[in-house]
Protein backbone atom coordinates (compact mmCIF):
# COMPACT_ATOMS: atom_id res chain seq x y z
CA UNK A 1 0.00 0.00 0.00
CA UNK A 2 1.36 3.41 -1.00
CA UNK A 3 2.26 5.88 1.73
CA UNK A 4 0.05 8.89 2.36
CA UNK A 5 1.31 12.08 0.72
CA UNK A 6 1.65 15.16 2.96
CA UNK A 7 2.43 18.84 2.75
CA UNK A 8 5.74 20.07 4.20
CA UNK A 9 3.93 20.58 7.51
CA UNK A 10 2.61 17.03 7.52
CA UNK A 11 -0.98 17.77 6.47
CA UNK A 12 -2.53 14.93 4.41
CA UNK A 13 -3.04 15.63 0.71
CA UNK A 14 -6.31 14.48 -0.85
CA UNK A 15 -5.58 15.33 -4.51
CA UNK A 16 -2.20 16.23 -6.00
CA UNK A 17 -3.48 16.29 -9.60
CA UNK A 18 -5.94 19.19 -9.69
CA UNK A 19 -5.96 22.80 -8.43
CA UNK A 20 -8.94 24.19 -6.50
CA UNK A 21 -10.98 26.21 -9.00
CA UNK A 22 -14.29 28.05 -8.98
CA UNK A 23 -16.12 25.52 -11.10
CA UNK A 24 -14.88 23.38 -13.98
CA UNK A 25 -13.78 26.43 -16.03
CA UNK A 26 -13.35 28.94 -13.22
CA UNK A 27 -10.16 30.61 -11.93
CA UNK A 28 -7.86 29.10 -9.32
CA UNK A 29 -8.56 30.10 -5.71
CA UNK A 30 -5.85 31.64 -3.55
CA UNK A 31 -6.86 29.32 -0.73
CA UNK A 32 -5.32 26.33 -2.56
CA UNK A 33 -2.37 26.15 -0.17
CA UNK A 34 -1.19 22.88 -1.72
CA UNK A 35 -0.74 24.57 -5.10
CA UNK A 36 0.96 27.60 -3.54
CA UNK A 37 3.33 25.45 -1.49
CA UNK A 38 4.18 23.27 -4.48
CA UNK A 39 5.01 26.25 -6.70
CA UNK A 40 6.89 28.02 -3.92
CA UNK A 41 9.08 24.97 -3.34
CA UNK A 42 9.77 24.66 -7.06
CA UNK A 43 10.91 28.29 -7.16
CA UNK A 44 13.42 27.47 -4.46
CA UNK A 45 14.68 24.08 -5.68
CA UNK A 46 18.00 25.56 -6.74
CA UNK A 47 20.67 27.19 -4.65
CA UNK A 48 23.44 29.33 -6.14
CA UNK A 49 25.90 27.04 -7.86
CA UNK A 50 29.50 27.03 -6.74
CA UNK A 51 31.54 29.83 -8.32
CA UNK A 52 34.11 27.15 -9.15
CA UNK A 53 33.79 23.36 -9.10
CA UNK A 54 30.07 23.68 -9.90
CA UNK A 55 29.80 20.43 -11.86
CA UNK A 56 30.53 17.43 -9.69
CA UNK A 57 29.85 13.90 -8.49
CA UNK A 58 30.22 12.31 -5.08
CA UNK A 59 30.36 9.07 -3.13
CA UNK A 60 30.88 7.76 0.39
CA UNK A 61 33.73 5.55 1.49
CA UNK A 62 36.39 4.98 4.09
CA UNK A 63 40.08 5.51 4.72
CA UNK A 64 41.95 2.61 6.31
CA UNK A 65 45.38 3.27 7.81
CA UNK A 66 47.69 0.31 7.27
CA UNK A 67 51.05 1.83 8.29
CA UNK A 68 52.36 3.47 11.46
CA UNK A 69 52.98 7.19 10.99
CA UNK A 70 52.46 8.15 14.64
CA UNK A 71 55.95 9.67 14.75
CA UNK A 72 54.60 12.38 12.46
CA UNK A 73 51.07 12.94 13.78
CA UNK A 74 48.79 12.37 16.75
CA UNK A 75 45.63 12.71 14.59
CA UNK A 76 43.29 9.88 15.55
CA UNK A 77 42.31 9.06 11.96
CA UNK A 78 45.99 8.47 11.04
CA UNK A 79 46.69 5.80 13.66
CA UNK A 80 47.44 2.32 12.31
CA UNK A 81 44.31 0.18 11.99
CA UNK A 82 41.95 3.15 12.09
CA UNK A 83 39.04 3.23 9.62
CA UNK A 84 37.36 6.60 9.00
CA UNK A 85 34.16 7.20 7.05
CA UNK A 86 34.37 9.88 4.37
CA UNK A 87 32.54 11.64 1.56
CA UNK A 88 34.44 12.52 -1.62
CA UNK A 89 33.25 15.02 -4.23
CA UNK A 90 34.87 15.06 -7.68
CA UNK A 91 34.37 18.06 -9.94
CA UNK A 92 35.62 20.17 -12.80
CA UNK A 93 36.98 23.63 -11.97
CA UNK A 94 35.72 25.93 -14.73
CA UNK A 95 32.53 24.33 -16.00
CA UNK A 96 29.13 25.39 -14.77
CA UNK A 97 26.60 22.92 -13.37
CA UNK A 98 25.56 20.78 -16.32
CA UNK A 99 28.85 21.19 -18.18
CA UNK A 100 30.16 18.07 -19.88
CA UNK A 101 32.29 15.82 -17.70
CA UNK A 102 34.83 15.02 -20.42
CA UNK A 103 36.16 18.55 -20.92
CA UNK A 104 39.82 19.55 -20.64
CA UNK A 105 39.99 20.93 -17.13
CA UNK A 106 41.48 20.36 -13.70
CA UNK A 107 39.41 17.97 -11.54
CA UNK A 108 38.52 18.78 -7.97
CA UNK A 109 39.22 16.10 -5.35
CA UNK A 110 37.55 17.20 -2.09
CA UNK A 111 37.24 14.80 0.85
CA UNK A 112 35.33 15.17 4.11
CA UNK A 113 36.57 12.78 6.81
CA UNK A 114 34.11 12.15 9.66
CA UNK A 115 36.70 11.64 12.41
CA UNK A 116 36.36 11.04 16.16
CA UNK A 117 37.73 14.57 16.68
CA UNK A 118 35.42 16.39 14.27
CA UNK A 119 35.43 16.79 10.49
CA UNK A 120 38.66 17.12 8.56
CA UNK A 121 38.29 18.46 5.01
CA UNK A 122 41.05 17.93 2.46
CA UNK A 123 40.24 20.15 -0.51
CA UNK A 124 42.53 19.31 -3.42
CA UNK A 125 42.72 18.49 -7.12
CA UNK A 126 43.88 15.74 -9.46
CA UNK A 127 47.09 17.75 -9.92
CA UNK A 128 49.84 18.29 -7.34
CA UNK A 129 50.12 21.99 -8.29
CA UNK A 130 47.93 24.94 -9.27
CA UNK A 131 48.07 27.93 -11.63
CA UNK A 132 48.82 30.59 -9.02
CA UNK A 133 50.58 30.89 -5.68
CA UNK A 134 48.82 33.89 -4.08
CA UNK A 135 45.10 33.96 -3.26
CA UNK A 136 44.81 37.62 -4.24
CA UNK A 137 45.09 36.46 -7.88
CA UNK A 138 42.42 33.76 -7.62
CA UNK A 139 39.40 35.90 -8.63
CA UNK A 140 41.37 37.21 -11.63
CA UNK A 141 42.36 33.71 -12.70
CA UNK A 142 38.81 32.35 -12.39
CA UNK A 143 37.44 35.26 -14.43
CA UNK A 144 39.62 34.08 -17.33
CA UNK A 145 38.17 30.57 -17.07
CA UNK A 146 34.56 31.71 -16.99
CA UNK A 147 32.49 33.60 -19.57
CA UNK A 148 33.29 36.95 -21.13
CA UNK A 149 30.73 39.36 -19.58
CA UNK A 150 30.13 40.98 -22.98
CA UNK A 151 29.79 37.94 -25.25
CA UNK A 152 28.90 35.38 -22.55
CA UNK A 153 31.32 32.99 -24.27
CA UNK A 154 34.41 31.23 -22.98
CA UNK A 155 37.48 33.18 -24.08
CA UNK A 156 40.74 31.46 -25.04
CA UNK A 157 42.36 34.88 -25.47
CA UNK A 158 41.69 35.80 -21.82
CA UNK A 159 42.99 32.44 -20.56
CA UNK A 160 46.24 32.61 -22.51
CA UNK A 161 46.69 36.31 -21.80
CA UNK A 162 46.56 35.60 -18.07
CA UNK A 163 48.75 32.50 -18.30
CA UNK A 164 51.47 34.22 -20.32
CA UNK A 165 51.46 37.31 -18.07
CA UNK A 166 51.75 35.08 -14.99
CA UNK A 167 54.45 32.54 -15.86
CA UNK A 168 54.10 30.74 -12.53
CA UNK A 169 51.10 29.09 -14.28
CA UNK A 170 53.32 27.22 -16.76
CA UNK A 171 53.71 24.05 -14.69
CA UNK A 172 49.96 23.61 -14.29
CA UNK A 173 49.31 24.63 -17.92
CA UNK A 174 51.71 21.92 -19.08
CA UNK A 175 49.87 19.34 -16.95
CA UNK A 176 46.50 20.57 -18.23
CA UNK A 177 47.55 20.38 -21.88
CA UNK A 178 49.14 16.94 -21.46
CA UNK A 179 47.18 13.70 -21.69
CA UNK A 180 46.14 14.09 -18.04
CA UNK A 181 44.09 17.17 -18.93
CA UNK A 182 41.08 14.93 -19.68
CA UNK A 183 40.81 11.94 -17.32
CA UNK A 184 38.72 9.11 -18.77
CA UNK A 185 36.89 8.83 -15.44
CA UNK A 186 37.14 9.97 -11.86
CA UNK A 187 38.25 6.46 -10.95
CA UNK A 188 41.26 6.60 -13.27
CA UNK A 189 43.08 9.64 -11.91
CA UNK A 190 45.22 10.50 -8.91
CA UNK A 191 44.19 12.94 -6.19
CA UNK A 192 46.33 15.39 -4.25
CA UNK A 193 45.97 17.67 -1.26
CA UNK A 194 48.09 19.92 -3.52
CA UNK A 195 48.86 22.43 -0.75
CA UNK A 196 51.51 21.97 1.90
CA UNK A 197 49.89 21.14 5.25
CA UNK A 198 51.46 20.26 8.59
CA UNK A 199 51.32 17.22 10.85
CA UNK A 200 51.87 17.50 14.60
CA UNK A 201 52.89 14.55 16.76
CA UNK A 202 52.28 13.79 20.44
CA UNK A 203 55.55 15.52 21.36
CA UNK A 204 54.43 18.79 19.81
CA UNK A 205 56.80 18.45 16.83
CA UNK A 206 55.65 19.83 13.49
CA UNK A 207 56.29 18.27 10.07
CA UNK A 208 55.33 19.73 6.71
CA UNK A 209 53.35 17.28 4.58
CA UNK A 210 51.96 16.70 1.08
CA UNK A 211 49.01 14.30 0.68
CA UNK A 212 48.79 11.93 -2.32
CA UNK A 213 46.06 9.50 -3.44
CA UNK A 214 47.29 7.14 -6.16
CA UNK A 215 44.57 5.39 -8.13
CA UNK A 216 44.68 1.59 -7.99
CA UNK A 217 42.60 1.44 -11.18
CA UNK A 218 45.46 2.85 -13.26
CA UNK A 219 45.65 6.15 -15.13
CA UNK A 220 43.37 6.47 -18.17
CA UNK A 221 42.93 9.63 -20.22
CA UNK A 222 41.10 10.83 -23.31
CA UNK A 223 42.42 12.68 -26.33
CA UNK A 224 40.48 15.72 -27.59
CA UNK A 225 38.99 13.56 -30.35
CA UNK A 226 37.97 10.78 -27.97
CA UNK A 227 36.48 13.30 -25.53
CA UNK A 228 34.43 14.92 -28.30
CA UNK A 229 32.88 11.55 -29.15
CA UNK A 230 32.10 10.87 -25.48
CA UNK A 231 30.51 14.29 -24.99
CA UNK A 232 28.37 13.84 -28.11
CA UNK A 233 26.79 10.76 -26.57
CA UNK A 234 27.00 11.37 -22.82
CA UNK A 235 27.63 14.68 -21.06
CA UNK A 236 27.56 12.92 -17.67
CA UNK A 237 30.15 10.27 -18.56
CA UNK A 238 32.19 10.54 -15.35
CA UNK A 239 29.13 10.70 -13.12
CA UNK A 240 27.66 7.63 -14.84
CA UNK A 241 30.93 5.70 -14.62
CA UNK A 242 31.39 6.44 -10.91
CA UNK A 243 27.79 5.66 -9.97
CA UNK A 244 27.59 2.45 -12.00
CA UNK A 245 30.92 1.09 -10.79
CA UNK A 246 29.94 1.52 -7.14
CA UNK A 247 26.40 0.29 -7.79
CA UNK A 248 27.69 -3.02 -9.16
CA UNK A 249 30.22 -3.47 -6.34
CA UNK A 250 33.34 -2.51 -8.29
CA UNK A 251 34.57 -0.15 -5.56
CA UNK A 252 37.34 2.25 -6.68
CA UNK A 253 40.41 2.45 -4.47
CA UNK A 254 43.38 4.77 -4.02
CA UNK A 255 46.67 4.20 -2.19
CA UNK A 256 47.11 6.99 0.36
CA UNK A 257 50.69 8.28 0.67
CA UNK A 258 52.46 11.31 2.10
CA UNK A 259 55.65 13.29 1.61
CA UNK A 260 57.32 14.68 4.73
CA UNK A 261 59.65 17.65 5.16
CA UNK A 262 61.05 18.66 8.54
CA UNK A 263 61.04 22.29 9.65
CA UNK A 264 64.84 22.31 9.37
CA UNK A 265 64.67 20.95 5.82
CA UNK A 266 62.12 23.63 4.93
CA UNK A 267 64.35 26.38 6.30
CA UNK A 268 67.21 25.15 4.10
CA UNK A 269 65.12 24.28 1.05
CA UNK A 270 66.32 25.87 -2.21
CA UNK A 271 62.73 26.51 -3.30
CA UNK A 272 59.71 27.75 -1.36
CA UNK A 273 58.08 24.54 -0.02
CA UNK A 274 54.83 26.46 0.49
CA UNK A 275 54.55 27.49 -3.17
CA UNK A 276 51.48 25.79 -4.69
CA UNK A 277 52.93 26.06 -8.21
CA UNK A 278 55.80 23.72 -7.32
CA UNK A 279 56.14 20.06 -6.40
CA UNK A 280 58.50 18.44 -3.91
CA UNK A 281 61.03 16.17 -5.69
CA UNK A 282 60.30 12.56 -4.82
CA UNK A 283 64.02 11.79 -4.79
CA UNK A 284 64.48 14.19 -1.88
CA UNK A 285 61.11 13.65 -0.18
CA UNK A 286 60.00 10.09 -1.04
CA UNK A 287 56.40 8.91 -0.90
CA UNK A 288 55.57 7.17 2.37
CA UNK A 289 52.74 4.58 2.26
CA UNK A 290 49.96 5.24 4.78
CA UNK A 291 46.79 3.39 3.82
CA UNK A 292 44.00 2.79 1.33
CA UNK A 293 40.92 4.84 0.47
CA UNK A 294 37.84 3.06 -0.88
CA UNK A 295 34.58 4.46 -2.26
CA UNK A 296 31.75 2.01 -1.56
CA UNK A 297 28.39 3.81 -1.33
CA UNK A 298 26.47 6.06 -3.69
CA UNK A 299 24.44 9.03 -2.41
CA UNK A 300 20.70 8.49 -2.19
CA UNK A 301 19.80 12.09 -3.05
CA UNK A 302 22.14 14.10 -5.27
CA UNK A 303 20.96 17.54 -4.13
CA UNK A 304 21.03 16.77 -0.42
CA UNK A 305 24.33 14.94 -0.38
CA UNK A 306 26.41 16.19 -3.32
CA UNK A 307 25.12 19.66 -4.14
CA UNK A 308 24.88 20.65 -0.48
CA UNK A 309 28.17 19.03 0.52
CA UNK A 310 30.34 21.87 1.80
CA UNK A 311 34.11 21.56 2.12
CA UNK A 312 36.66 23.91 3.63
CA UNK A 313 40.35 23.68 4.54
CA UNK A 314 39.39 25.57 7.71
CA UNK A 315 38.11 22.23 9.04
CA UNK A 316 41.07 20.58 10.76
CA UNK A 317 41.53 18.19 13.68
CA UNK A 318 44.24 17.85 16.34
CA UNK A 319 47.43 16.56 14.73
CA UNK A 320 46.75 18.23 11.34
CA UNK A 321 47.17 21.90 10.55
CA UNK A 322 47.99 24.43 7.86
CA UNK A 323 51.16 26.01 6.49
CA UNK A 324 52.24 29.47 5.29
CA UNK A 325 51.03 28.53 1.77
CA UNK A 326 49.44 31.80 0.57
CA UNK A 327 46.76 30.06 -1.47
CA UNK A 328 45.85 27.79 1.42
CA UNK A 329 45.62 30.74 3.80
CA UNK A 330 43.21 32.50 1.43
CA UNK A 331 41.06 29.39 1.01
CA UNK A 332 40.73 29.03 4.79
CA UNK A 333 38.52 32.13 4.58
CA UNK A 334 37.00 31.96 1.10
CA UNK A 335 35.65 28.40 1.23
CA UNK A 336 33.47 28.61 4.36
CA UNK A 337 32.41 32.12 3.34
CA UNK A 338 31.24 30.77 -0.03
CA UNK A 339 29.22 28.03 1.71
CA UNK A 340 27.54 30.46 4.09
CA UNK A 341 26.44 32.51 1.07
CA UNK A 342 25.51 29.53 -1.11
CA UNK A 343 23.72 27.30 1.41
CA UNK A 344 23.25 29.23 4.64
CA UNK A 345 25.05 30.19 7.83
CA UNK A 346 24.32 26.84 9.51
CA UNK A 347 25.30 24.64 6.55
CA UNK A 348 27.30 22.40 8.92
CA UNK A 349 24.01 21.13 10.36
CA UNK A 350 23.01 19.48 7.08
CA UNK A 351 23.42 15.72 7.35
CA UNK A 352 26.22 15.37 4.78
CA UNK A 353 28.22 18.08 6.57
CA UNK A 354 27.48 17.05 10.16
CA UNK A 355 30.36 15.74 12.26
CA UNK A 356 29.87 12.45 14.09
CA UNK A 357 30.91 14.07 17.39
CA UNK A 358 28.69 16.11 19.71
CA UNK A 359 28.89 19.83 18.90
CA UNK A 360 28.70 22.43 21.70
CA UNK A 361 28.98 26.15 20.95
CA UNK A 362 27.34 29.55 21.28
CA UNK A 363 26.05 29.98 17.71
CA UNK A 364 22.42 31.04 18.13
CA UNK A 365 19.69 32.03 15.68
CA UNK A 366 20.10 32.47 11.96
CA UNK A 367 18.61 30.66 8.97
CA UNK A 368 18.56 26.85 9.05
CA UNK A 369 19.45 26.44 12.73
CA UNK A 370 17.86 23.05 13.37
CA UNK A 371 19.09 22.80 16.95
CA UNK A 372 21.61 20.02 16.40
CA UNK A 373 24.18 22.08 18.31
CA UNK A 374 23.98 21.45 22.05
CA UNK A 375 23.16 24.61 24.02
CA UNK A 376 22.22 25.02 27.66
CA UNK A 377 19.25 27.40 28.10
CA UNK A 378 21.14 29.44 30.71
CA UNK A 379 24.52 29.31 28.91
CA UNK A 380 24.10 31.18 25.63
CA UNK A 381 27.14 33.40 26.14
CA UNK A 382 30.73 32.90 27.30
CA UNK A 383 32.22 33.10 29.85
CA UNK A 384 29.24 32.15 32.00
CA UNK A 385 28.49 30.69 35.43
CA UNK A 386 26.07 28.06 34.18
CA UNK A 387 28.26 25.22 32.98
CA UNK A 388 28.58 26.20 29.32
CA UNK A 389 31.26 24.68 27.05
CA UNK A 390 34.83 25.99 27.34
CA UNK A 391 38.08 25.65 25.43
CA UNK A 392 40.93 23.34 26.44
CA UNK A 393 44.56 24.41 26.13
CA UNK A 394 45.67 20.83 25.41
CA UNK A 395 44.56 21.42 21.82
CA UNK A 396 46.94 24.33 21.31
CA UNK A 397 49.34 23.84 18.42
CA UNK A 398 53.10 24.24 18.81
CA UNK A 399 54.42 27.74 18.14
CA UNK A 400 55.02 28.64 14.51
CA UNK A 401 57.76 31.15 13.73
CA UNK A 402 56.59 33.78 11.23
CA UNK A 403 58.14 36.87 9.65
CA UNK A 404 58.17 40.01 11.78
CA UNK A 405 57.57 42.59 9.04
CA UNK A 406 54.09 42.78 7.53
CA UNK A 407 54.08 43.94 3.91
CA UNK A 408 52.72 42.97 0.51
CA UNK A 409 55.72 40.77 -0.24
CA UNK A 410 56.14 40.06 -3.94
CA UNK A 411 55.24 36.42 -4.53
CA UNK A 412 57.19 36.58 -7.79
CA UNK A 413 60.48 37.15 -5.98
CA UNK A 414 61.15 33.52 -6.95
CA UNK A 415 61.37 33.80 -10.73
CA UNK A 416 62.11 30.12 -11.35
CA UNK A 417 59.06 29.56 -13.50
CA UNK A 418 60.62 27.00 -15.80
CA UNK A 419 62.42 24.22 -13.89
CA UNK A 420 59.25 22.45 -12.70
CA UNK A 421 57.51 22.40 -16.11
CA UNK A 422 60.86 21.44 -17.68
CA UNK A 423 61.18 18.46 -15.33
CA UNK A 424 57.70 17.34 -16.36
CA UNK A 425 58.22 18.01 -20.05
CA UNK A 426 61.40 15.97 -20.40
CA UNK A 427 59.79 12.81 -19.01
CA UNK A 428 56.73 12.96 -21.28
CA UNK A 429 56.78 10.30 -24.01
CA UNK A 430 57.27 11.70 -27.53
CA UNK A 431 53.76 10.75 -28.63
CA UNK A 432 52.25 12.55 -25.62
CA UNK A 433 54.35 15.63 -26.39
CA UNK A 434 52.89 15.70 -29.90
CA UNK A 435 49.36 15.48 -28.52
CA UNK A 436 50.18 18.27 -26.04
CA UNK A 437 51.44 20.54 -28.86
CA UNK A 438 48.17 19.90 -30.70
CA UNK A 439 46.07 20.48 -27.56
CA UNK A 440 47.79 23.81 -26.96
CA UNK A 441 47.38 24.85 -30.60
CA UNK A 442 43.66 24.02 -30.54
CA UNK A 443 43.20 25.87 -27.23
CA UNK A 444 44.74 28.96 -28.86
CA UNK A 445 41.99 29.31 -31.45
CA UNK A 446 41.01 32.98 -31.42
CA UNK A 447 44.06 34.05 -29.40
CA UNK A 448 45.82 37.15 -30.74
CA UNK A 449 49.31 36.86 -32.23
CA UNK A 450 50.90 38.98 -29.51
CA UNK A 451 49.80 36.55 -26.81
CA UNK A 452 50.78 33.51 -28.90
CA UNK A 453 54.28 34.93 -29.32
CA UNK A 454 54.48 35.59 -25.59
CA UNK A 455 53.49 31.97 -24.91
CA UNK A 456 56.08 30.65 -27.37
CA UNK A 457 58.70 32.73 -25.59
CA UNK A 458 57.87 31.00 -22.31
CA UNK A 459 57.85 27.56 -23.93
CA UNK A 460 61.29 28.32 -25.40
CA UNK A 461 62.63 28.92 -21.88
CA UNK A 462 61.20 25.60 -20.72
CA UNK A 463 62.73 23.75 -23.65
CA UNK A 464 63.37 24.87 -27.27
CA UNK A 465 61.65 21.75 -28.59
CA UNK A 466 58.54 22.67 -26.56
CA UNK A 467 58.23 25.99 -28.41
CA UNK A 468 59.09 24.45 -31.77
CA UNK A 469 56.48 21.73 -31.35
CA UNK A 470 53.71 24.17 -30.40
CA UNK A 471 54.66 26.55 -33.21
CA UNK A 472 54.48 23.76 -35.78
CA UNK A 473 51.13 22.58 -34.39
CA UNK A 474 49.72 26.14 -34.60
CA UNK A 475 50.83 26.39 -38.24
CA UNK A 476 49.21 23.04 -39.00
CA UNK A 477 45.95 24.12 -37.35
CA UNK A 478 45.92 27.34 -39.38
CA UNK A 479 46.55 25.44 -42.59
CA UNK A 480 43.52 23.27 -41.91
CA UNK A 481 41.32 26.18 -40.79
CA UNK A 482 38.69 27.29 -43.31
CA UNK A 483 37.74 30.53 -41.57
CA UNK A 484 40.57 32.57 -43.14
CA UNK A 485 42.26 33.43 -39.83
From TrEMBL:
Catalytic EC class: oxidoreductase
Pfam families named among the record's database cross-references: Catalase, Catalase-rel
Names of required cofactors: heme
PROSITE patterns (alphabetical): CATALASE_1, CATALASE_3
Residues where heme binds: 335
Claim: RNA-binding is one of the keywords in the record: no
SMART domains: Catalase
Entry keywords, A to Z: Heme, Hydrogen peroxide, Iron, Metal-binding, Oxidoreductase, Peroxidase
EC number(s) on file: 1.11.1.6
Catalyses which reaction(s): 2 H2O2 = O2 + 2 H2O
Keyword Heme: yes
Active site feature: 53, 125
Protein family membership: Belongs to the catalase family.
The protein, known as: catalase
Gene: katA
Amino acid sequence: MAKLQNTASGNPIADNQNSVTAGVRGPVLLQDYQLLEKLAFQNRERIPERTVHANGSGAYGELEITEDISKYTKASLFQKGEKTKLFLRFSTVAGEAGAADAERDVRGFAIKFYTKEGNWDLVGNNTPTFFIRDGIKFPDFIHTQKRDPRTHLRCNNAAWDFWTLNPETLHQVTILMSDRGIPASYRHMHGFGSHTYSLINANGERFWVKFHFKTKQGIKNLTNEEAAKVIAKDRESNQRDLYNSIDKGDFPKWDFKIQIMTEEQANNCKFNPFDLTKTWPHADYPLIPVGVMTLNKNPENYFNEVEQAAFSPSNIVPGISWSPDRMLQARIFSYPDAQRYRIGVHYQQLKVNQPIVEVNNYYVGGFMNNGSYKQEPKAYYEPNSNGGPVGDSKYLEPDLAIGDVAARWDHRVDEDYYSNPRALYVILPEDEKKRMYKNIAESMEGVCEKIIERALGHFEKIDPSYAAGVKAAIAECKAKCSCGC
